[in-house]
Design a protein that fits this description.
It is a single chain. The chain is built from 14 helices and eleven strands. The chain is α/β, with parallel strands linked by helices. The protein has two domains: 224 residues, TIM Barrel, CATH 3.20.20; 63 residues, no CATH class. An eight-stranded parallel beta sheet has the order 1-9-8-6-5-4-3-2. The protein has a three-stranded antiparallel beta sheet with strand order 7-11-10, covered by helices on one side. Helix 3 packs parallel to helix 4 and helix 8 packs across helix 14. The radius of gyration is 18 Å and the shape is globular. 50% of the residues are buried. The mean pLDDT is 96. The structure holds flavin mononucleotide. Flavin mononucleotide binds next to strand 3, strand 9 and helix 9.
Length: 312
């Protein structure tokens, strides 16, 4: 089995999750320069900003990088066309079925890696030409599915013949090793990079992630089929109370509209949407990106040796 870093021609077996409003050209380039695969998050970007970001990223790194296209973006067709036109090396997608875009992306030479939260979508995109899938469990920050990484990854691995990358709940070498054991070739990470030195979010956001404990994330929007995991705060409490009263999607959207931007740019961690995954509880320090990747990779190897020492 070829590992993710070997397949992509990078140093460490990690893809940085494409995080809307956070994964700028500068951040993606910093991740790629630190040895993993950086992604520009197109969610929240107008098409012209997206195109300019790809060009800027190219000027900031000579390493491979990619883009993440959020399929619920109102201008998704334009974003998809730009990604092909710019001949981006890797295209990942979030929140939906990207099959209609796959032929043009493949034609452009990109590796196409949709994020999936269910076996059915993994099988569909594999049949339609995806090069790999990212199987993302509900532990993740941001938009989530129902199934945990532990249950989802092996089921996706068994269902498709293309490589599987695990995402959701991975922030240490122990968890990376577990991902390999489940059959993945590497990991996509998001939450653990929020507390990197290079991550361009407001200091209050980083502090909130560092302060969080294991049970401090909640999922809003399950009742209206728009589940998002973030840190519990005034906004999520009000949102969930409204959900219990049976509020509809329109009414609930009012709570989250622009919420991530409020948290990322203004540092409003009370009424903003502080997206983060369940691993927030294990993050205690702000570190440079390269150190994060090195420590996780080293701990993975040490853990494997420990298990071998136990006769496993
Ligand atoms: C703040 C934040 C924003 C995110 N935004 C996106 C996004 O725009 N598109 C996407 O495909 N995934 C998004 N995700 C999910 C990540 O790409 C990644 O799959 C996930 O964070 C991995 O799980 P982890 O948070 O447990 O590391 C986001 C995650 C976070 C934490």
């Amino acid at each position: 089995m070829q590992k993710l870093n070997e397949w992509l021609g990078i140093e460490f077996p990690f893809i940085q999750g494409g995080m809307a409003n956070i994964a700028t050209a500068e951040f993606a380039a910093a991740v790629s320069n630190a040895g993993a695969l950086g992604l520009i998050g197109a969610g929240g970007m107008p098409p012209e900003v997206f195109q300019e970001s790809i060009r800027r990223c190219r000027s900031l790194t000579d390493k491979p990088f990619g883009v993440n296209i959020m399929l619920m973006h109102p201008q998704v067709e334009q974003l998809a066309a730009i990604a092909a036109e710019e001949k981006v090396a890797v295209i990942t997608t979030g929140a939906g079925d990207p099959t209609r875009f796959i032929p043009a992306w493949k034609e452009s030479g990109a590796k196409v890696i949709p994020v999936v939260a269910a076996v059915a979508l993994a099988k569909l995109v594999a049949k339609r030409g995806a090069d790999a899938v990212i199987a993302e469990g509900t532990e993740s920050g941001g938009h989530v599915g129902e199934t945990t990484t532990m249950a989802l990854v092996p089921q996706v691995v068994d269902a498709v013949d293309i490589p599987v990358i695990a995402a959701g709940g991975i922030a240490s070498g122990r968890q990376l090793l577990a991902a390999y054991a489940l059959g993945a070739i590497g990991a996509q990470v998001g939450t653990c990079l929020l507390v990197s030195e290079e991550c361009p979010i407001h200091e209050n956001y980083k502090k909130a992630v560092l302060k969080a404990k294991d049970r401090d994330t909640v999922v809003t929007g399950r009742s209206v089929d728009a589940p998002v995991r973030c840190l519990r705060n005034q906004m999520t409490n009000a949102y969930i109370a409204k959900e219990r009263e049976g509020a509809d999607r329109m009414e609930l959207e009012h709570f989250t509209l622009g919420g991530l931007r409020k948290a990322v740019f203004d540092g409003d961690v009370k009424t903003g949407s502080v997206m983060a995954g369940q691993v927030a509880g294990m993050l205690h320090e702000i570190k440079p990106l390269r150190q994060i990747f090195e420590e996780m990779t080293a701990q993975c190897g040490q853990t494997l040796k420990k298990l071998e020492g136990m006769g496993l």
